[in-house]
Specification:
Layout (H helix, E strand, L loop, with lengths): L1 E5 L8 H16 L3 E4 L5 H11 L5 E7 L14 E5 L2 H11 L2 E4 L4 H15 L7 E4 L6 H12 L11 E4 L2 H10 L1
Parallel strand pairs: 1-2, 1-5, 2-3, 3-4, 5-6, 6-7
Helix pairs in contact: 1-2
Length: 179
């Protein structure tokens, strides 16, 4: 299975998030899956791919716009790397290559990726699991936002089932593998 990881590119975040990303990458590889990600060498992206590649046989596919191809920006140890011209092409490739999505701690870029796949599932254009790894409560407010959105009628309540929130990686992976 190809599991697409969305997450921060910044290293200026808590070690808690970086360590969780590394362990999550290890778990993807241990379970025999391939990590698909935005190609970054730093932050949550970099740690998740390092975790996956630390396991014998761990596979990773990076996808990034060519203009990110500068020293220190992209992870060079991928089994495959796809260059795109734009960020729009990048997300299209990520979505196409993925069998499931894992949203790890991140900022506005991660939110954009999450909402893109969430909306595609909501309108029936995509039928792939979305799992949010709520490390140290980092996505409590996102969960609350989605709940309030449904409670106030801006979204049908059954759309809340299009994604699931998890406090630990084992439960998240079990969820993805069941679907």
């Amino acid at each position: 299975m190809n599991i697409c990881v969305f997450g921060a590119s910044s290293d200026a975040i808590s070690k808690t998030y970086l360590d969780a990303a590394y362990s999550f990458g290890e778990q993807i590889a241990r379970r025999g899956h391939t990590l698909i990600f935005g190609g970054g060498a730093t932050g949550v992206m970099g740690q998740s791919v390092r975790g996956a590649k630390s396991i014998d046989g761990g596979r990773a596919v990076g996808i990034a716009p060519r203009y990110f191809d500068e020293d220190g920006v992209l992870y060079r140890g991928c089994d495959e790397f796809i260059f795109t011209d734009t960020m729009r092409e990048r997300i299209a490739f990520l979505i196409d290559r993925a069998d499931a999505f894992a949203v790890l701690p991140g900022g506005v870029g991660t939110y954009q990726e999450f909402f893109e796949v969430f909306v595609l599932c909501q309108v029936g254009q995509l039928k792939k699991p979305i799992a949010v790894y709520n490390v140290d409560g980092c996505y409590d407010e996102l969960y609350n936002l989605l709940t309030v959105t449904a409670d106030r009628g801006f979204m049908q309540k059954d759309n809340l089932s299009l994604c699931a929130f998890f406090e630990n990686a084992d439960d998240l992976m079990n969820y993805i593998e069941r679907l």
